[in-house]
Design a protein that fits this description.
By secondary structure, this protein is mainly beta. It contains 1 helix and 19 strands. The chain folds into 2 domains: 31-137, Sandwich (Immunoglobulin-like); 140-239, Immunoglobulins (Immunoglobulin-like, Sandwich). The protein is 7% helix and 50% strand. The longest helix has 16 residues, at 2-17. Mean pLDDT is 82; it is low at 1-34.
Length: 240
């Protein structure tokens, strides 16, 4: 403390001599709570990431002026976002020095998830923030993707296979024209059924007329794990 006072007295003496412009400002190091610690980029945008998978991105924190003593980096909204690497933890950054963090986005739902990460100083004060945003995209596969087709006068039962990377619950399922097609009771996929990753189910579709049907649609709806209703992708049903 005595050294700092002596330095201040000496600087005032220099001002008095007129050798230094009085417009100069002083930044005291104090406890190292930070000057201007900025995140580059200011926002980590993960874009669309398939629910049940993950993506990792990096950001850099750069100190512009006063030294900053960093305790750690914390990420909110776990476990959707997770700090994979904290290259800033325990570091003291001088002016123009930087450190790097790595964040993982692992969505489980089909929606946009927004939160932030904060760099905390040794005194427990947040000294910089990093915005985090990303959108979960549920990958549901219905095969065959082109739909189902019956030959002329063919009255048989064919099937779709439904798979998902997250848990969903079927809430509605039917052909848009029930005079040409029906769903037998033996279908594995039923309204109220919950489908989970690794457990595909079969949708049986039966043609019940020999007349040419033209293109009809198989339509269905489901709920995400959090209860969000979703209209499933339609598939074509056609009898020649």
């Amino acid at each position: 403390m005595m050294i700092k006072r002596l330095a201040a007295v000496a600087l005032l003496a220099v001002f008095a001599l007129g050798t230094v412009s009085p417009a100069i400002t002083l930044a005291c190091e104090g406890e190292g709570s930070g000057g201007d610690l900025i995140a580059e980029p200011s926002t980590l945008d993960f874009g669309e990431v398939v629910a049940g998978t993950s993506e990792t991105k990096k950001a850099v924190f750069k100190e512009l002026f006063a030294p900053v003593n960093i305790k750690e980096t914390i990420v909110f909204d776990k476990p959707t976002y997770e700090l994979v690497k904290d290259g800033c933890k325990g570091k003291t950054l001088q002016a123009n020095e930087s450190c790097e963090v790595e964040v993982k986005f692992a969505p489980t739902l089909q929606r946009t998830e927004t939160t932030s990460a904060s760099v905390i100083s040794m005194s427990g004060v947040p000294v910089s923030n990093l915005n985090l945003t990303g959108k979960g995209k549920n990958l549901i596969s219905i095969t065959p993707t082109a739909g189902l087709e019956w030959a002329s006068k063919e009255k048989t039962t064919k099937e779709f296979t439904v798979t998902t990377l997250t848990e969903i619950e079927i809430t509605a399922m039917e052909p848009n024209d029930k005079t040409d097609f029906s769903l037998p009771e033996t279908s594995g996929c039923k309204v109220g059924l919950k489908i989970v990753k690794g457990s595909p189910c079969k949708v049986l579709v039966k043609r019940i007329t020999e007349t040419k049907t033209g293109q009809k649609l198989f339509k269905w709806k489901y709920k995400e794990e959090d209860g969000t209703p979703v209209d499933g992708a339609e598939r074509i049903l056609e009898g020649k």
